[in-house]
Amino acid sequence: MIRPKRRFYLVVGLFLITAVTATATGFHLFSSLLFILLTTVVVSFLWNWLMLLGITASTHLSNTHIENGNFINEKVLVKNSSIVPKYGLEIRDLTDMPGYNGGVVANLRSRSSSTFMLKLTARKRGQYVAGSIEIANIDPFGLFRFEITCGENQEILVLPRIHNLPDFHITNADLSGDSSIRKRSSTVTPHASSVRDYASGDSLSRVHWGTSARMGKLMSKEFDLGSASEVWIISDLDRSVNFGYMEESTDEYAASIAASLSKKYIGSNLPVGLIAYGEKRYFQPADTGAGHLNRLIEYLAMSRCEGDTLLESVLVNEEPLWTHLTTLVLITSSPRIQWSISLRALARRGVRTIVVLIEANSFGASFNTTDVLSDLNAIGVPVYIVRKGDNIPHALSVLSSNVHEGANKFGKESVG
């Protein structure tokens, strides 16, 4: 692609003025100036054309799934198959990852190749593309910019940053136990509930050999969790209460906390479900296992803080999902009293609640999220407070000191 620069149009304007003046006066000096201007344009054009002649490139990405804050190393192999040396080649990736503005400037000898490394830093979770690069050159006079595109795009998934939470306590009331209420599970548990047709990917341990022999075809066992205890994580994606920029935003902190808590609870063999109202409803039913954890994290990666559903409305809409054996974890920066009132109704039904308040004021908001703290204290809800720049594992190891002593009815005995 050829992109004339602003200076090119200035030269064209000067050329036209000179041509008119030369015609009107007949002075040889203006004719010479016309020749110089025309020669400059031609030389500039040829320079750019020769600099990109015979240039090809290929790319290789070190990985396509990374956590927010990490980076991808992109290996770029550039080949010059012409006899003309190349000078001042600008090489950059055409990724749509937010905040990327990297690149390198390279020189190549005739009939040679060279390898360059580009670093793509992830600053916001989501799905992007990378791998297609632009190689450009600007002539010494700055009249033209020639560009070519090489390489193929690959999908990049930026996951929320996941922290280990060794000091976040899970109460005894949350731990799994047998119950008359059972939930279907996609993982193998000690509780076989039924059989179904064998599906591709089922392990041999799932095959029920007795039924398979009677039916004359492979049949797989279905399992349930053997426990009604569930943890539901709600991440508030209401755009009106989220502030900050890129990785230092309430939205990214919330996604990181939700992913980290999912890992913590699933690591304790508790089924975890996810609900988030962004530009659409994100929903994952409660389940256990590494595969389910990966699904939760990918859902969080794809979620967008573009919702307009208030947290109290989310609680009302999803209330039928929860029983007295449910632990609800709310992650929000909302200061609205209305959602804490909704928690009162859930508490009367025996739903246990934990709240992680992300203090929006520390991210530039004009309000204080902690204004809702006194209402949460009144109903004995354990509250963790996270501010911009906090060490998240540490912040989730310390309950808010304003929680009334003895009001926490979620169990004083706990395990890590």
Q: What is the helical fraction, as a range of percent?
A: 25-40%
The strand line-up of the biggest sheet is: 20-19-16-21-22-23
Q: How many distinct beta strands?
A: 24
Low-confidence parts: 176-185, 187-193, 403-416
The rough form would be described as elongated
Arithmetic mean pLDDT: 82
How does the helix and strand content classify structurally? Answer: alpha+beta
- Using only CA atoms, what is the Rg? 31 Å
What percent of residues are in strands?
25-35%
Count of separate DSSP helical elements: 9
Main beta sheet: strand number and arrangement?
6 strands, mixed
Distance between the termini: 60 Å
Which structural traits does this protein have?
alpha+beta, 5-stranded antiparallel sheet, elongated, disordered C terminus
